[in-house]
Each structure stands twice: as structure tokens, then as C-alpha cells.
């Protein structure tokens, strides 16, 4: 299947703090599932309405953005977050505890099949 994303997305796993803005602001712990320069996907226990403002604490750095989707899975909800303009994630800013570049995995797999 061809990748349709405009930028590379890294798979990861790390517990982070998320502040959910709105009429009932709250802070929750979430699992960072994947991250890209302009957004991320976090797993939460509750659905989040599209457009909800969120703040993700990635190490010592705060990334602000909005929810672009909330999809139910087996143990919660995957919430896609688009970072605000001018905010870009990089490994130099914050590297999750577990980080995997799918492009490198595909490259290794194609080299072993050649």
C-alpha cells in the first residue's frame, strides 16, 4: 500500500501528559502512538471531539494543537492531533522512549527479499 502522508511518521510508545482544553479542562496521561513533524497520534481512554484544543507535553516541550479525529480501538481511542502552525517536532527536540522509523523497516525487509 502506498503511503499517502505528506511527511514521515514515526511509530513510538511513550507515556505523556495531555491537557484537554474546553468547558471542562483536564489533564490525562496518554500513550504517544506515533509522531511526525506537524502532528501526533495519542491513545486516550475517552473520545475527543474534532477541533478540541490539546496540549501535549513531550519531555520539557509543550506542543499545542487540535484534534483532527478520534477513532475507537480495542482499549480506548486514537486521537490524531495537528500541531499549531510554527510548531514542529523533531528527534532533537524530543525522542520518545521507543521510536521506530517504518521506512527503515521497509528498506531492511526489501533488502532481505532481494
CATH architecture label name = Beta Barrel
Strand order of the largest sheet: 1-2-3-6-5-4
Give the tally of structural domains.
Answer: 1
Strand content: over 45%
Distance between the termini: 19 Å
What's the CATH topology name? Answer: Thrombin, subunit H
CATH class category name: Mainly Beta
CATH level-4 homologous superfamily: predicted glycosyltransferase like domains
Counting helices, strands and paired strands, the structural category is mainly beta
Return the average pLDDT rounded to an integer.
89
Q: What radius of gyration results from the CA coordinates?
A: 15 Å
Shape: globular
Which spans of ≥5 residues are poorly predicted at pLDDT below 50? Answer: none
**Elements, N to C (H/E):** EEEEEEEH
Helix content: 10-25%
Number of strands: 7
User: Which sheet architecture does the biggest sheet show?
Assistant: 6 strands, antiparallel, barrel
Contiguous helical run count? 1
Amino acid at each position: 500500500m502506498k503511503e499517502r502522508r505528506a511527511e514521515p511518521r514515526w511509530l513510538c510508545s511513550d507515556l505523556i501528559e495531555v491537557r484537554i482544553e474546553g468547558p471542562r479542562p483536564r489533564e490525562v496521561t496518554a500513550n504517544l502512538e506515533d509522531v511526525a513533524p506537524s502532528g501526533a497520534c495519542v491513545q486516550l481512554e475517552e473520545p475527543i471531539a474534532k477541533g478540541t484544543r490539546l496540549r501535549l507535553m513531550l519531555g520539557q516541550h509543550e506542543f499545542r494543537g487540535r484534534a483532527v479525529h478520534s477513532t475507537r480501538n480495542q482499549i480506548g481511542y486514537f486521537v490524531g492531533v495537528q500541531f499549531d502552525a510554527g510548531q514542529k517536532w523533531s528527534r532533537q527536540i524530543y525522542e520518545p522512549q521507543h521510536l521506530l522509523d517504518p521506512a527503515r523497516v521497509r528498506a531492511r525487509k526489501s533488502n532481505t527479499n532481494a
